[in-house]
């Protein structure tokens, strides 16, 4: 080990500290058969003694918190007995001493894994842990006056926050932030308090409404402000508590032990009897590993075995690199599915994807409204040149809008530019307030009436701008002309038995879905516009009400259904199968692609768009899969 002068000085400082609080220690066995030891309200000398003894006994520290006002500083920690890397701890150090200690161990190849601080800026006391662990890149910055300034220290590298402490005073806050490079594209969120406080209860409610998400840390300041961090990993059953006194914490630890749960994160804040704790209990202190699974069949290639191995390898490498949990790939010819492979890179508490599972399609949904319009044109109910608003009985404020035709909407040349005036498909809360003062959710009809009262962004036919609203308006045309709800018209006249469904907005409707449309983002609920409640991105947090936007981006189907459908319908244009045409879709919780490529059709679905980058997605659809098709041609 590296016995730096700084570490010895810090140890001496901690041994000389004086404390008045009663130390409390607990020991429990977790359901993963690892011993857990927990203590809190201990002074620096006792923490140092415990660290030495527990280290010798094969324990690793998994949670560390320092709190209280110097010199009366206390420590709370959780230790787990398990195999681990060499590590060193420090406590009771001022910033200069701590920084020297950290730099010393850093030169020896150690990485900071825990950091905590307490007290006013000029007399803050630091504690931490460094570990000999393989982390490619990491960054730790303390004494930040704004937590968002941490991004300037990462060199553009995506980081997962591993440690945080808001110290100082309410009028002069400081932030200490530790991050490790996010090499697996793991999802997490953290909510800082700066000049504006967060609504912790609302944040907690909305974050845990996202399926499989849980609190990872409930970091606590001296004035009891919680900075919550959430992740989507699996530790079994979990329970989180906050605002506990030492006595209540002791009772909670005992109660949760009887339930088979152990503490995995413990944070303290405050002095003496005013000290409060936030704690997270779980069945296991180490998140469950992901497992790779493949289902489905392969056919239609000259070398089915070779093609299957190559395709599975492409998807395995791509999904692991990008952290994507669920995906499908399907290949068809003349509407007949030849290959359908389903991929899962996920924890055991999530479903293994099957070929008939349905995914949110995003803008791949638009191919169905194109097919419906083509059906009505072929039947003589519409023409490409039909003016849309006069057909629907509207008199737009901008007279130019009377010239918008079916063709304009199909080709995105109607005069709507979302980069100029916004995307109505994701503005349902705004439109609800404009049309009804927020007394009810906006409908598609409300969206149309909102739009006809506003000027166009350019004259119809004079430009091109991709428009979700245009496709939504086309679905309204289908309903108006046929007197049939849009989805029912598709099911009766277009789909020919294919399983294409509405992806409903409400999160409750998806509590048991096999496919989890994953997004870390939340936003205001457009279904209840006046509540300003946060909901997951795929469930209205992106601003959309999916029941009203089916023509644009809110249908769901399997990759097999899509590959089959585009064997007889244009994938991007309007009419019959389109040679070498393609369409992609992206929305919160979904990324999709479909292509008619030469004499076959293929599609793939992902359950998220939060992979490493769009360059990664393009590499998959434009290079990796096409090269596979060249190496393994169809029979």
From TrEMBL:
Residues 1-21 form the signal peptide. Gene3D superfamilies: DD-peptidase/beta-lactamase superfamily (3.40.710.10). The keyword Signal applies. It comes from the Eukaryota. Keywords: Signal. Residues 312-571 form the Beta-lactamase-related domain. InterPro entries: AmpC-like (IPR050491), Beta-lactam-related (IPR001466), Beta-lactam/transpept-like (IPR012338), PGH-like_rpt (IPR049511). The keyword Signal applies. Belongs to the peptidase S12 family. This is Beta-lactamase-related domain-containing protein. It comes from Neonectria ditissima. The lineage of its organism: Eukaryota, Fungi, Dikarya, Ascomycota, Pezizomycotina.
